Amino acid sequence: MSEYLQTAVKNRIGLLILDRPKALNSLSLDMVRALTQTLLAWRSDDEVCAVFIRSTSERAFCAGGDIRFFYEAGSKTPQGGSALLEDFFTEEYALNYLIHHYPKPYVALMDGIVMGGGMGIAQAGAANRMRIVTERTRMAMPEVNIGMFPDVGGSFFLSRAPGQIGAYLGVTGETIEAADALYAGLADVFVPSDRIPALIDFIVSFEGADIRDAIRDFTMPFRTQADPAGSRLAAQRAVIDRHFAHDDVAAIVSSLKQDASPFAGETLAVMGKRSPLMMCVTLSQLRRGANMSIADCLRMERTMVRRSFEHGEVLEGVRALAIDKDNAPRWNPARLEDVSAEAIDSFFAPAWPAYAHPLRDLD
Fold first, then answer.
1. Residue of 66, 92, 111, 143 marked active site
2. Domain of 213?
3. 56 in a structural domain
4. pLDDT over threshold 90, residue 78
5. pLDDT tens, 289-311?
6. How many separate domains does the chain show?
7. Catalytic-role residue among 66, 92, 111, 151
8. Is residue 125 annotated as part of the catalytic site, yes or no?
9. Is residue 14 annotated as a catalytic residue, yes or no?
10. Strands of 129-133's sheet, edge to edge?
């Protein structure tokens, strides 16, 4: 088990509490393993009727994977390979798959920062999930800012957001708030942060058939405090759909340049800081993922991770953001017009025969 994960069962509710506040609950390999072991044990335990995952921190639910670990492990070989990286991503994606198909209600309180791997353990799940946001929620899949792509199932859940919202969020890596998350279908209900203690008490004392219905009833009085119709994404939906409908990032940029609105200008400025290569890879990833199962999306992403470390773009991105902190990544290539179709396609080339893939059992 992990020192950064608290677990308990109260009144048949399985509690998973992330407790690594100094690192904003960034996921380590031992946390991934502890989450997996606990969920597997509870899956067939009749004394657990639902799972509730939250954080001990007001600042973050989970800020993602431990990018310093990625850098240290990936920098040890010229090709960016590492047994620890192999283990981390394979086991993290298997955890995402486990949650997606979990047979019991799975409730995630996404209070504070929710990014990357945090999205993976909150967005995973199908019919049985419940995702709660607060006014402190800051949600993103910001991987293009570190030379990577939106993984942990991002191919699946971003590609299924309304219109072109998923493409916009993935390609820009922009951060959204509670009302935006509700509008994008990345959250289910809102609760004010000062009501979290009451919500927790309510959940652990729940008696009834479906905890999700009970949470909807509990949060009903607060629904007007985070109105999806009044969100920034709702206000810019038509613009986002028009510009991000293109299947080529250069075409998206060209379209945005013809738009004199502040939103278009802001979006261009943001994209100008991202990895040109990984914006293109991300757009291709999301177009492919729209017609794939969650299992196939995770398999595809596993191959893409290996290609990302082989190329080195992610190592440079992490260096600039978290190691040297100069915020001056030397992207390769540096210009969008120099990204070739061959370079994009190389991220999707199978890393090994399909029968030998370590995620082959995801079905």
1. 143
2. 5-356
3. yes
4. no
5. 999 999 999 999 999 999 999 99
6. 1
7. 151
8. no
9. no
10. 5-10, 13-18, 50-55, 106-110, 129-133, 189-190
